[in-house]
Amino acid sequence: MRPLLSIWTKPTETFEYIAERRLAGKENHIGFLIVLISYSIYLARFEEYSKPISGSALAGFIVSFTITPLMGLLCFKIIYPYFVWKTGKIFNGKATFQEIETVLIIHSYPYLFIRFLRLFL
Domain boundaries in the chain? Predict the structure, then answer.
Protein backbone atom coordinates (compact mmCIF):
# COMPACT_ATOMS: atom_id res chain seq x y z
CA MET A 1 0.00 0.00 0.00
CA ARG A 2 1.23 3.48 -0.85
CA PRO A 3 -0.11 5.79 1.86
CA LEU A 4 0.37 9.02 -0.07
CA LEU A 5 -1.87 7.74 -2.85
CA SER A 6 -4.29 5.48 -1.01
CA ILE A 7 -5.23 8.10 1.59
CA TRP A 8 -7.37 9.79 -1.09
CA THR A 9 -9.35 6.69 -2.03
CA LYS A 10 -9.26 4.52 1.12
CA PRO A 11 -8.59 6.78 4.09
CA THR A 12 -9.74 4.35 6.81
CA GLU A 13 -7.64 1.46 5.52
CA THR A 14 -4.66 3.77 5.06
CA PHE A 15 -4.84 5.04 8.63
CA GLU A 16 -5.07 1.49 9.94
CA TYR A 17 -2.15 0.35 7.78
CA ILE A 18 0.09 3.23 8.87
CA ALA A 19 -0.88 2.87 12.53
CA GLU A 20 -0.06 -0.85 12.48
CA ARG A 21 3.32 -0.24 10.84
CA ARG A 22 4.08 2.68 13.16
CA LEU A 23 3.29 0.70 16.29
CA ALA A 24 5.39 -2.20 14.97
CA GLY A 25 8.35 0.20 14.58
CA LYS A 26 8.47 0.05 10.77
CA GLU A 27 7.48 3.64 10.00
CA ASN A 28 10.39 6.02 10.35
CA HIS A 29 9.24 9.00 8.30
CA ILE A 30 6.99 10.48 10.99
CA GLY A 31 9.65 12.96 12.12
CA PHE A 32 10.15 14.10 8.54
CA LEU A 33 6.39 14.61 8.17
CA ILE A 34 6.33 16.71 11.34
CA VAL A 35 9.08 18.94 9.97
CA LEU A 36 7.19 19.33 6.67
CA ILE A 37 3.98 20.16 8.52
CA SER A 38 5.81 22.71 10.66
CA TYR A 39 7.35 24.40 7.62
CA SER A 40 4.04 24.50 5.77
CA ILE A 41 2.26 26.07 8.75
CA TYR A 42 5.09 28.57 9.19
CA LEU A 43 5.12 29.50 5.51
CA ALA A 44 1.33 29.87 5.42
CA ARG A 45 1.55 32.53 8.12
CA PHE A 46 4.99 33.88 7.31
CA GLU A 47 4.06 37.58 7.41
CA GLU A 48 2.33 37.26 10.75
CA TYR A 49 5.14 35.23 12.36
CA SER A 50 7.99 37.30 10.94
CA LYS A 51 6.84 40.70 12.27
CA PRO A 52 8.74 40.40 15.58
CA ILE A 53 11.98 39.57 13.73
CA SER A 54 11.59 41.78 10.66
CA GLY A 55 14.79 43.71 11.38
CA SER A 56 17.21 40.85 10.84
CA ALA A 57 17.42 38.37 7.99
CA LEU A 58 19.67 36.15 10.10
CA ALA A 59 17.08 35.96 12.87
CA GLY A 60 14.41 35.05 10.33
CA PHE A 61 16.61 32.30 8.93
CA ILE A 62 17.32 30.91 12.40
CA VAL A 63 13.64 30.89 13.31
CA SER A 64 12.50 29.31 10.09
CA PHE A 65 15.05 26.51 9.99
CA THR A 66 15.63 25.68 13.65
CA ILE A 67 12.87 26.81 15.95
CA THR A 68 9.96 25.97 13.62
CA PRO A 69 10.74 22.23 13.28
CA LEU A 70 11.52 21.97 16.99
CA MET A 71 8.19 23.54 17.88
CA GLY A 72 6.48 21.22 15.42
CA LEU A 73 8.12 18.19 16.99
CA LEU A 74 7.15 19.39 20.45
CA CYS A 75 3.55 20.07 19.46
CA PHE A 76 2.84 17.03 17.28
CA LYS A 77 4.70 14.46 19.37
CA ILE A 78 3.92 15.64 22.90
CA ILE A 79 1.46 18.49 23.43
CA TYR A 80 -1.39 17.75 20.98
CA PRO A 81 -1.45 13.99 21.56
CA TYR A 82 -1.35 14.50 25.33
CA PHE A 83 -4.39 16.77 25.36
CA VAL A 84 -6.34 14.53 22.99
CA TRP A 85 -5.36 11.46 25.02
CA LYS A 86 -6.41 13.09 28.32
CA THR A 87 -9.70 14.25 26.80
CA GLY A 88 -10.27 10.74 25.48
CA LYS A 89 -9.65 9.28 28.93
CA ILE A 90 -12.35 11.55 30.35
CA PHE A 91 -14.79 9.97 27.88
CA ASN A 92 -13.43 6.41 28.40
CA GLY A 93 -11.40 6.40 25.19
CA LYS A 94 -9.42 3.28 24.33
CA ALA A 95 -6.67 4.66 22.09
CA THR A 96 -3.08 4.65 23.30
CA PHE A 97 -0.88 7.72 23.28
CA GLN A 98 1.11 6.37 20.30
CA GLU A 99 -2.06 5.71 18.28
CA ILE A 100 -3.26 9.26 18.88
CA GLU A 101 0.15 10.64 18.00
CA THR A 102 0.19 8.69 14.74
CA VAL A 103 -3.29 9.77 13.70
CA LEU A 104 -2.62 13.42 14.50
CA ILE A 105 0.44 13.36 12.27
CA ILE A 106 -0.95 11.25 9.43
CA HIS A 107 -4.14 13.27 9.12
CA SER A 108 -1.95 16.08 7.76
CA TYR A 109 -1.13 14.27 4.49
CA PRO A 110 -3.92 16.06 2.59
CA TYR A 111 -2.94 19.38 4.17
CA LEU A 112 0.63 18.95 2.96
CA PHE A 113 -0.58 18.03 -0.52
CA ILE A 114 -2.71 21.16 -0.71
CA ARG A 115 0.20 23.32 0.47
CA PHE A 116 2.44 21.69 -2.13
CA LEU A 117 -0.09 22.46 -4.87
CA ARG A 118 -0.40 26.08 -3.76
CA LEU A 119 3.32 26.53 -4.35
CA PHE A 120 2.91 25.71 -8.02
CA LEU A 121 -0.55 27.04 -8.84
Answer: 29-120
